[in-house]
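Exam revision sheet. Question 4 asks you to relate a sequence to its structure. Input first:
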Amino acid sequence: MSMERHCFFGDIVRLRGLASAEQVLTALNVQRSQIENGLRRRFIGDVMVDLGLLTSPQRNEILAAQSQGVPEECAAGYRS
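Answer key, structure tokens:
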């Protein structure tokens, strides 16, 4: 039985050196705050673009890598 791992958007961003763990956490906090204030849920990549942490092309590149399954760099970053 193989268990497929999911690589989170923020993990890929951090592992590629595009943002720090603190910046990813900031974006997640903004995302959560928007939901708590009754706004529709927005994807973390969109929030990071709005905050100026990523460019749109960088976001799209991460999404493409994420959609292909567990990117190599993310699989290597998993701890047992």
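Marking note for examiners. The chain has a mean pLDDT of 86.
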